[in-house]
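Re: [help] complex structure
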Amino acid sequence: AQSVTQLGSHVSVSEGALVLLRCNYSSSVPPYLFWYVQYPNQGLQLLLKYTSAATLVKGINGFEAEFKKSETSFHLTKPSAHMSDAAEYFCAVSFNTGFQKLVFGTGTRLLVSP
Amino acid sequence: GAVVSQHPSWVICKSGTSVKIECRSLDFQATTMFWYRQFPKQSLMLMATSNEGSKATYEQGVEKDKFLINHASLTLSTLTVTSAHPEDSSFYICSALPQGNQPQHFGDGTRLSIL
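Output below.
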């Protein structure tokens, strides 16, 4: 069965520092992987997705993630954090070949200090 | 970009009331929509898959008679929480799947509080 594990429920960085949010997946078939961001009392916004094309995926707001099959990882990074990046981030994997059922990780809250 | 509208955004009602939540895809057609539930500081849990013109598919442990789903058109799915009780209080989020090989687009969620 597909699953994702997000290490660290909270990550704190200073403004301008590197952001690294970790995600490891388990999937018996080639996965589709996603990172979503959620601001308070809002739904989810897609940051980026991996669909078996390029292993380094660039998303919106300066975020990117690298698919590493050998490590079963899909970590999210951003070179320089902004205050507006403070939010909850979810890694997700979808079953089989499409964008149908999403299985979400438990989320990581990113805190950005001045 | 693709927009999904969810209404209402916030509802407070008495125990025993039935509450209907609407999910609309505003600028695309969606044969499939999804309903999620999110408890405070937790992840999203898929409740059911809503298919236009057919019965919804519920995840294990979700009471279909409690959470009624109707997907009567290609742009609208509704979730009705019947005879709601305080334990049904939660954040409910819908998403819509565009046609073609595209990812889900999410609504802004509905916070349901049952007194």
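The interface with chain A takes residues 4, 6, 9, 32, 34, 41-46, 49, 91, 93, 95, 97, 101-109, 111 of chain B (CB under 8 Å).
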